[in-house]
Write a structure and sequence with these properties.
The complex is a heterodimer. Chain A has 3 domains: about 5-320, no CATH class; about 330-435, no CATH class; about 445-500, Arc Repressor Mutant, subunit A. Chain A has 17 helices and 16 strands. Chain A starts with a helix and ends with a helix. Chain A is elongated, with a radius of gyration of 29 Å. In chain A, helix 14 crosses helix 16 (about 470-480). Chain A is of the alpha+beta class. Chain B is α/β, with parallel strands linked by helices. In chain B, strand 2, helix 4 (about 105-115) and strand 3 (about 120-125) form a beta-alpha-beta unit. The termini of chain B are close together. The chains are: A alpha+beta, B alpha/beta. The interface of A and B includes residues 56, 57, 300 and 304 of A.
């Protein structure tokens, strides 16, 4: 198969995503009072409602409606004042009632958009000139969101025996109804994505947004956030859509990117050999790095959708929507902009810190300890060092940042210090002192060393004065050696330069 | 001492409270009457003697302890077998649920028990409430106590017959298209379908969720008012999101004067095809009786009512198809043994678990909801619903209640109506009220001049004017009964058979 870059020169990929997110931070299910759980004993959080027993009736969880309205507001959707639940019918034991309660043509949230900033290597995936690229090759891709609707999750089925994980040859199929009725929001994009990287970035941005809203733990791994990708190809310059395939079993950002990349290349090969792309559902196999056919859709499924007569239509009031709006915390983009304007951080650093609400909270707590004067150092530490550790406290990071800011240790030493204090309550400053790592910046003590080195290295001094400024590094090294590592290289640098220039 | 079948609900509750007799004595009398009468009537699918005696004993103990007794203390009550009562099976008169044990108690049943009622048993019905004669019960037909060669009407035929035969004092039925009012008419008892939302549907196996409503049968308007008080006590049911609070004392308005109030008559309905002369004459006589008490008769028009049956037979089967989808034999209910695949098990369980009419309605619903057909039928049916709702709203600007027949004719013989559409047409006068959601009550007018069988009038009212309906119903009762207006008699062949208060 051809490589992606080559394929995308001739073909345009048209990608749309369907993203299911379980509202895991709620306490109870969508239509009953059963507790939400991921790892309780199977079939312990069930009741007549979520088991679909005769005579049971659904009562909507108002908190779930708040969550979806917040999701809609955060993704620039129009919040529909009037919408309702529908029943979607299919016979399968994972849905106890044999219909799923979902929404119809009008969802709670309609017609939103997210703007993706694509930069670096990822931006190179898009060769066309339909987007305006900046000097570094980066661009902004506006991605329209068709809708976000509310629905209930199905039960989890485990097929035992036969072909692994498939019902076809299973000897037994086990059903865990704990998941049945979990509040689920489904976001559907317009087919506006053009590269696997854009799809990956969209999912990442959506995850950051939902995490910030606090409506879900958004775990692709555990399945609380699930993504299906629809993809078709068309010749560059044409506007008609090709036949699409649907990609399932995508449980990481990398899988999403790689599955789409594979599928684009596969479809291109089929089409270039004069073949036909069939409308089908394909399963991504990460270990073998390929997609395989799950089932062919010859006719559209008839789900017999109609308005759920057990649930009155919703008429959301302005007060309700305002209340939801007021509960939305600062979103990643706004936070990034604030970090740039308030703290003068670089865009990439600010974006990285603002993206994950846990990281941003850590950063801001660290700042509150460290004070804003060291913000640049704190940001540097947060971006470059902290991600490698799992058990640091904001106080430790603040202390370490202060050491770096006053040149008491080098960046290399900082790693050594963090290795030692991670997971303990030890203060990095105390550790540095206890281990004699603190570097002197005392001009009196260091001055003697500088003078001794200048006196000894007359050749290098001459070279410097002749214009070879690079030789300064050598002189700093000599000073460090003479100080046996306890002198601060920046201080030496400064003092050497002063003396040589005078 | 007297036979319990000569006592009203109020008299029984008062007698128990005063110590004239015990609840246990009443319960034994009722069980004795069932024993003596039901071999012929076959109103019951189960007799819950243990539950009845336990409830009666609890009532007697409460009295002995000096506690205040409920308004239905010791009153023998029967429940249609689509209502859950823990300790009984809830079969819906279907093989599908032949052995289904209630897993929780329906709100309507619980409220009757909370008022002190004694649960005598579960009554026969058309399978899943599909029918107007109780002939589609999978287990056995029920006889009309006034002529055991005839049907009691349906679908709540067992509940109507049990009251008419004096086996219980009060019973509950459910009315989706007339299933309380029509059998009440055929059995000569009072039967009320309250406004949609007035009584909780939680724990009542759904037929048409937007149409179903639970209501009481009694031999007098006062008994029905007592039951309505019990059913609405405690406000709206948090387990049924379509339920509404009803804050009115139904007993308090029974004898409100009707002088100067207006009773609507729809001339077109009084000329409807299929309406027998004896029924028309009796209803006209009821109108004159209301005039005699000072009410004014006014002609009103319901121009779209002719479309009600058509709209109903679109909406009801669609909802039935959806509600009955859960009966797949996987978790409970009839399960076909020895099937090789899930699909085979599901289809054969449904093919053999459901009777003909249940299958007919579900097939019809599945067809009507399928894509391409939905727009042709379901959507226009809902538009018709809006039109008829507007018709009624206009009519009620001119009158307080509307008087019309409850059923076009008196009880028919078993097997007489073999064409399903002919059977559907017998709901001519009742169906429009379910379409709109308003309340209606069937009031006995004595025996028909030609047939010698019970004939009834129906009163319909605006939404949540159910207490007003009972005011007018009581006015008819007051004028019509030969015994001074205390209510309808027990069917003569059964009165006094067993049931002596020992």
């Amino acid at each position: 198969m051809k490589k992606l870059a080559e394929v995308l020169r001739d073909w345009e990929a048209v990608i749309g995503l369907e993203v299911h997110t379980e509202l895991t931070t709620l306490e109870t299910k969508m239509f009953c009072n059963c507790r939400l759980s991921h790892d309780d004993e199977p079939n312990t959080n069930v009741c007549p409602v979520c088991l679909g027993m005769p005579g049971a009736l659904p009562v909507p969880n108002e908190k779930a409606i708040e969550s979806i309205v917040m999701a809609g507001l955060a993704t620039n959707c129009e919040i529909m004042r009037h919408s309702m639940f529908y029943r979607k019918h299919y016979f399968y034991p994972d849905m106890a009632k044999n219909f799923q309660t979902t929404q119809g043509p009008v969802a709670f949230c309609m017609h939103g958009h997210l703007d993706l900033e694509v930069s670096g290597a990822g931006a190179k995936e898009r060769p066309d000139d339909t987007v305006e690229k900046d000097a570094d090759g980066g661009y902004v891709a506006p991605i329209r969101i068709l809708r976000i609707h509310m629905e209930e999750d199905a039960a989890k089925m485990v097929h035992v025996g036969g072909e692994e994980g498939r019902i076809t040859a299973a000897t037994e199929s086990l059903i865990d109804y704990n998941r049945c009725g979990t509040p689920l929001i489904e976001l559907v994009t317009e087919p506006d994505l053009r590269t696997p990287e854009e799809a990956r970035l969209f999912m990442e941005k959506l995850r950051q947004t939902f995490l910030t809203l606090g409506i879900s733990d958004c775990s692709l791994e555990s399945g609380s956030m699930r993504c299906d990708g629809n993809i078709s190809l068309r010749r560059r310059g044409t506007t008609e859509f090709g036949t699409k395939t649907e990609m399932k079993n995508i449980n990481s950002f990398k899988s999403l990117h790689d599955a789409l990349e594979y599928e684009i290349c596969r479809q291109a090969e089929v089409l270039e050999e004069g073949g036909i792309v069939y409308q089908e559902t394909r399963h991504w196999e990460p270990s073998r790095r390929r997609t395989v056919v799950m089932r062919v859709k010859e006719t559209a499924d008839d789900y017999r959708l109609f308005p759920d007569p057990d649930l009155a239509p919703f008429d959301l009031t302005d007060e309700f929507i305002d209340r939801c709006r007021a509960r939305i915390p600062e979103l990643p983009d706004a936070k990034r902009d604030r970090y740039m304007s308030d703290f003068g951080l670089k865009r990439a650093d600010a974006a990285q810190l603002a993206g994950d609400p846990a990281v941003a909270a850590f950063f801001e707590e660290t700042l509150s300890v460290a004070g804003e004067k060291d913000v640049e150092t704190v940001a540097k530490v947060m971006v470059n060092l902290v991600p490698s550790y799992d058990a640091l406290t904001p106080a430790q990071v603040a202390s370490l940042s202060a050491l770096l800011a006053e040149d008491a240790i080098t960046f290399a030493q900082a790693r050594e210090v963090l290795d030692a204090v991670n997971g303990t309550s030890e203060d990095p400053a105390a550790y540095v002192d206890a281990h004699g790592m603190r570097q002197s910046t005392d001009e009196g003590a260091l001055g003697a060393i500088v003078d001794e080195v200048l006196a000894r290295c007359t050749d290098q001094v001459q070279q410097y004065r002749d214009g070879n400024k690079k030789v300064l590094g050598f002189l700093v090294g000599q000073c460090m050696k003479a100080a046996k590592g306890s002198g601060n290289p920046k201080a030496f640098n400064k003092m050497l330069a002063e003396r040589l220039e005078s | 001492m007297a036979n319990f079948d000569q006592l009203s609900a109020r008299e029984i509750a008062a007698g128990v409270a005063n110590g004239d007799f015990t609840a246990t004595e009443v319960a034994r009398a009722a069980l004795d009457a069932v024993e003596a009468r039901d071999g012929e009537v076959k109103a019951f699918l189960q007799v819950s003697a243990d539950l009845a005696l336990a409830a009666a004993e609890a009532t007697d103990k409460a009295r002995a302890a000096g506690e205040k007794l409920g308004p239905l203390a010791g009153v023998p009550v029967a429940f249609k077998d689509n209502m859950h009562l823990v300790g009984t099976r809830t079969t819906c008169a279907s093989r599908m649920l032949e052995n289904y044990e209630s897993t929780f108690t329906a709100t309507c049943v619980q409220r009757m028990l909370d008022a002190g009622a004694t649960p005598v048993g579960k009554t026969n019905m058309d399978e899943f409430a599909f029918g107007s004669s109780t002939e589609s019960s999978a287990f056995h037909p029920t006889a009309n106590p006034w002529d055991t060669g005839r049907v009691p009407g349906g679908s709540s035929g067992g509940s109507a017959a049990a009251v008419a035969a004096g086996e219980v004092t009060v019973s509950l039925g459910s009315d989706t298209g007339g299933s309380i009012r029509q059998p009440a008419s055929l059995c000569g008892v009072v039967g009320m379908k309250p406004t949609y939302g007035a009584v909780s549907r939680y724990g009542v196996v759904a037929f048409g969720s937007s149409l179903d409503q639970v209501g009481p049968f009694g031999r007098s308007v006062e008994d029905v008012a007592l039951a309505m008080n019990a059913l609405t006590a405690g406000g709206r049911d948090p387990w049924d999101s379509t339920s509404q609070p009803v804050d009115v004392d139904f007993l308090a308005h029974l004898n409100d004067p009707i002088e100067g109030r207006r009773v609507g008559v729809v001339p077109a309905l009084m000329e409807a095809a299929g309406l027998t002369e004896e029924v028309r004459d009796a209803v006209n006589a009821a109108g004159r009786a209301l005039q005699d008490q000072g009410a004014e008769l006014v002609e009103v028009d319901l121009p779209n009512i002719a479309s009600a049956i058509a709209a109903y037979y679109v909406i009801a089967p669609c909802e039935a198809f959806s509600n009955l989808a859960r009966f797949d034999g996987v978790r409970y209910g009839y399960q076909e043994q020895g099937c090789a695949t899930l699909a085979e098990q599901t289809s054969l369980s449904r093919a053999h678990g459901f009777g003909e009419e249940a299958k007919r309605r579900q097939m019809l619903g599945a067809y009507l909801l399928s894509s391409g057909t939905y727009d042709t039928y379901y959507y226009p049916a809902q538009q018709v619903r809006t039109l008829i709702t507007a018709d009624y709203a206009r009519a009620y600007e001119q009158c307080d209640v509307i008087l019309m027949p409850a059923a076009p004719r008196t009880a028919f013989k078993f097997g007489e109506m073999s064409d399903p559409t002919q059977m559907y047409a017998s709901d001519l006068f009742t169906i429009s009220n379910n379409i709109v959601g308003n309340g209606g009550v069937s009031v006995p007018l004595g025996l028909g001049a030609t047939s010698g069988l019970p004939v009834s009038a129906q009163l319909q009212g605006p939404a949540f004017a159910d207490a007003t309906l009972l005011t007018f119903a009581r006015a008819i009762e007051r004028s019509n009964s030969a015994d001074g207006g205390s209510g309808a008699p027990v069917a003569p062949s059964f009165a006094g058979k067993g049931g002596e208060l020992a």
